[in-house]
Amino acid sequence: MAFLPQDWRDATLIGRIELPEGPTPIMVRGGEVFDMTPVAPTVSQLLAVWPQAGVPAGGKSLGKIEDFHFGKLWSGARDGAQLLSPVDLQCVKAAGVTFAVSAVERVIEERARGDADKAQAIRNDLAERVGGDIRSVKPGSEASAKLKAALISDGLWSQYLEVAIGPDAEVFTKSPVLSSVGWGEEVGVRSDSTWNNPEPEVVMVVTPEGRAVGATLGNDVNLRCFEGRSALLLGKAKDNNASCALGPFVRMFDDSFTIDDVRSAVLDLKIDGPEGYELVGRSTMSEISRDPLDLIAQAMSEHHYPDGFVLMLGTLFAPTQDRDVPGRGFTHKIGDVVKVATPKLGCLENRVTTSKDARNWTFGIAALMQNLADRGLLRPRSPEAARKAG
User: CA-CA distance, 13 to 264, in Å (whole number)?
Assistant: First the structure.
C-alpha cells in the first residue's frame, strides 16, 4: 500500500475503481473500503452533497484496503479491481505559471521557440535578472506593476510574466471530462513532440458552489516544444490522449488534513528511465505565488460548473538536468516511470508512452450514463429536489 498517504488510517479518501459492473465511487475510511453508489452514482455527485463536517452515511462495505490488489496496467499484473482516476464528471482545469521558476522557464520556452539548444543561455541570462525579483512581489500589487515597468524597459517582458505577477492568473482547461488517467496507468506524450516534461502538482477538488473539499496529486504533462513555439499551441501542448494523471485518491478535508496542509506540501518527483537514468526533483507549495483559494476563485470567475471541477495548482519543478546531450536538458523517453509523492496525499505513479500508443479513451459521458442506467443507479429526483433545482 505504498501509494497511500502515510497516515492513511486517519484519512478519509475518495476514489474510483473499475468493478465488473462498471466504474464505482468508493470511500476509504479507517482502512475500510465502501462502495458509495448507494449514496451517489458518481464522485462528482458524491462530493456535491458532502457535508461540511463528517461523512455521508449509506456506503456498502467492500472489505479492507489491504485486501485489494491494485496492479499497474503496463505490467499486466491485474488482480481484482482496477484503480481509476478519482474524479469523473468534474471539469479538469489547471493554473499555469504560479511559481517564479516556472515563469522563468515559460519565458525560456517562448524565446527559445522550442529549440533546447538555445534554452540554457537564455535561462542563465534571464534567471539572474528576473528570478529573485519575481519571488519577492505579490501578483497584482503595486510592487509587481513597478517590476513589470522595469522589465518592459529592459526588453524582458513576456506574456508569461504577465500571468506570473499580474492581477489575473492563467487558468485553462487541461483535459475533457472522464479523460484523466489514474495511478498505475500509462501517461501519454504526443509522438511528434521532442521536448516533454512532467509537472508534479497538487490538485484542488471543488464543488459546484466553489467550495474546496479536498485535494489529490496530478501530473500535468507538458510538451515544451509545442508551447514554446507559440502560446496559442497551449491546447495541443496540454490536452492529448492520456496526458493528465490524477490520484491515487482525493483526500477530503477534515481535522487530519486541511487547506494549510496543501499550502505547506512538499512534492517529491522521481523519474526512472528505461536506460537506468534517474532524475529527482521537488516542488514546494510554500513558494507558490498565489494562494490556492485565490486560484479557485479565479477559476470560478463568473462561470458555473454544475458538476464541480478540479484545479491543478502549477509546479515549481522545471527540469534542466541534461539527459543525453550536454546543454539540451531533460526530455521524457518512452518507458520512463514517474512518481509524484507527498506524505499526506500518497504517491501517483505512471509510465510514459505516446498518446498514440496509450490505452484508447472510449468510455465517455454517454457510455457512463448508459452504464449507470443499466445498473439502475440513475434515480428520478424527488419533487423537493426538483423544485430546488428550479
Answer: 20
- pTM score over 0.85: yes
List phi, psi (to 5°) of 211: -90, 125
C-alpha cell at 371: 452504464
**pLDDT(117) > 80:** no
> Hunting for cell 465502501 — which residue is that?
34
Reduced to 3 states (helix: H, G, I; strand: E, B; else coil), residue 105 is: helix
Q: How far is CA 119 from CA 193, 228, 328, in A?
A: 17, 10, 8
What is the pairing mode between strands 186-189 and 346-354?
Answer: parallel
Q: Quickly list H helices, the chain.
A: 43-48, 100-112, 116-126, 132-135, 142-153, 159-165, 224-229, 234-238, 259-263, 292-300, 365-374, 383-389
Torsions phi, psi for 168 (to 5 deg): -110, 130
Encode pLDDT of 130-178 as tens digits.
555 666 678 888 877 877 787 777 676 778 788 888 889 999 999 999 9
User: Which three three-digit cell numbers place residue 206?
Assistant: 471543488
